[in-house]
Design brief:
Blueprint lengths: L4 H11 L2 E6 L4 H12 L3 E7 L1 H10 L8 E4 L3 H13 L5 E4 L4 H8 L13 E8 L6 E4 L9 H17 L6 E4 L11 H14 L7 E2 L5 H5 L1 H6 L13 E3 L3 H14 L2 E8 L5 E2 L7 H18 L2
Parallel strand pairs: 1-2, 1-4, 2-3, 4-11, 6-9, 7-8, 7-9
Antiparallel strand pairs: 5-6, 5-10
Helix pairs in contact: 1-11, 2-11, 4-5, 6-11
Length: about 300
C-alpha cells in the first residue's frame, strides 16, 4: 500500500515512464511541473499550443525542450482537441490542462469524436498525504459533481475505489460522510449513506467496504471512534475514501486541509478513458507534480 507521494512516485518508476498530452502548454506553472515530472522519470510530455510562447517561457525558466514533442496550435480550442486526440488514439497516457479555461478542457474530454468518454460518470478525486494520518486519504467529490444523487454516489465510489486500487489499497474502506453516524430521515445524506452500505453488502458495489453514515471524526480518528462506541464499525478510525454528501462539504474540507494542515495532495478527473489532470493556477507546484504522478499510476493500472 502506498502511504506517501514519495512512495507513489517510486511506484510510477516501477511501472515505466508515461506520456502526458498537455493542452495549451504555454503556461509557466504547468511547464515547470511537466519538466519536474520528466526529470524525476515520471512522464514525458507532448506539448500542444502556441509553440513560440512555449519556447519563450521555457527559455525564461531554463527548461530544455529538446526531449519534448511540440505541436504548434495557437488556437486554444483547437489545441485542446489536438491534445485530447493524442490520448484518445493511445499516443498519450494522460491528458493535462494548460493555459485553458476549464469549460473548454471539459468540452474536449466530452467530444464525441476525439474525446475520452467511456460511458461512466465523470468525478474528481483528490488524494491527500496528511501529517498524523498513517494512510493516504481519497476525497471525492470536491470539485466536479455539485449535488450527487444516490446513483452518482455509486459512480463516485466506483471511480475513487479504482484510484485507490491503483495506489495499492486492496480493499479500501469507504466512509459516506454526514454530520452524524446514525440514519436520520430528516437528513437525506444519512439515508443515502445507509443505502450505499446495503448495496455494498448485497454485492452491487464491489472492491471495497462501505460503512456509513459516519461523521468525519469517527471516520478518521480511532480515539474518537472508540469514545463514541463506534470502534467496531468496519471503517471507523481508518477510512481510506471520504465520500462527501455534496460539493460544498467536499470543497470546504479540501481547502481547509490545503491552507491549514501539513499535507501534500494531488488530483485527477476520473471516469475517462485516461486520467485527466485538471489543476488550477492556484495549486502549488508540488500539487501539480503529485497530480501527474497520481495520473501515471492510475494510467498504468488501466493498461494492465
Amino acid at each position: 500500500m502506498v502511504k506517501s507521494f514519495d512512495e507513489l512516485i517510486s511506484k510510477v518508476k516501477e511501472c515505466g515512464k508515461k506520456t502526458i498530452a498537455v493542452a495549451a502548454a504555454e503556461d509557466d506553472a504547468v511547464l515547470e511541473a511537466v519538466a519536474e515530472a520528466h526529470k524525476q522519470g515520471i512522464a514525458d510530455a507532448i506539448l500542444v499550443g502556441d509553440e513560440a510562447k512555449i519556447r519563450a517561457i521555457a527559455a525564461e525558466m531554463n527548461i530544455d525542450l529538446s526531449d519534448y514533442r511540440i505541436i504548434n496550435e495557437p488556437d486554444k480550442t483547437a489545441a485542446s482537441l489536438a491534445a485530447v486526440k493524442l490520448a484518445h488514439d493511445g499516443e498519450a497516457d494522460m491528458y493535462m490542462k494548460g493555459l485553458l479555461d476549464t469549460k473548454t478542457f471539459l468540452k474536449s474530454i466530452l467530444n464525441k469524436e476525439v474525446g475520452l468518454r467511456t460511458g461512466k460518470t465523470l468525478s474528481h478525486v483528490a488524494v491527500f498525504q496528511i501529517e498524523g494520518v498513517e494512510q493516504l486519504l481519497f476525497l471525492s467529490d470536491v470539485a466536479f459533481i455539485t449535488y450527487p444523487t444516490l446513483e452518482d454516489k455509486v459512480h463516485i465510489i466506483e471511480n475513487t475505489v479504482e484510484v485507490a486500487h491503483a495506489c495499492g489499497v486492496e480493499c479500501p474502506k469507504v466512509a459516506p460522510l454526514a454530520a452524524v453516524e446514525v440514519v436520520n430521515p430528516k437528513m437525506p445524506c444519512t439515508v443515502d449513506a445507509d443505502e450505499l452500505r446495503k448495496m455494498c453488502e448485497e454485492g452491487k458495489i464491489t472492491g471495497c467496504v462501505v460503512d456509513g453514515p459516519l461523521s468525519m471524526d469517527i471516520a478518521i480518528d480511532p480515539e474518537a471512534a472508540a469514545h463514541k462506541g463506534a470502534q467496531d464499525r468496519p471503517a471507523a478510525g481508518h477510512a481510506d475514501v471520504l465520500l462527501f454528501p455534496d460539493i460544498q462539504a467536499g470543497n470546504l474540507v479540501y481547502k481547509t486541509l490545503v491552507h491549514t494542515a501539513k499535507c501534500e495532495n494531488g488530483c485527477i478527473l476520473t471516469g475517462t478513458k485516461v486520467p485527466a489532470i485538471l489543476t488550477s493556477r492556484s495549486d502549488s507546484f508540488q500539487t501539480k507534480v503529485n497530480s501527474i504522478a497520481l495520473a501515471a499510476v492510475v494510467a498504468a493500472a488501466l493498461n494492465k
